[in-house]
Write a sequence for this structure.
């Protein structure tokens, strides 16, 4: 399993579904385990969760920057 590819896949799923996004914000580890269907050790799961959070944050900043750019 390519972790980077899986993170991108999970980010897409989470961003498209508001209920899933809410679950991820409340219980990120449980949400990711449910989505991938695998119970990984906590240290591995935390790395995946941190990657997802970082990707969502970067995507959000990019979206905002793009909207601001269109204003000028």
């Amino acid at each position: 399993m390519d972790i980077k590819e899986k993170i991108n896949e999970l980010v897409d799923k989470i961003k498209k579904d508001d209920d899933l996004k809410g679950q991820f914000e409340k219980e990120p580890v449980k949400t990711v385990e449910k989505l991938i269907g695998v119970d990984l050790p906590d240290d591995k799961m935390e790395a995946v969760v941190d990657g997802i959070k970082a990707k969502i944050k970067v995507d959000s900043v990019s979206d905002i920057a793009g909207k601001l750019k269109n204003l000028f």
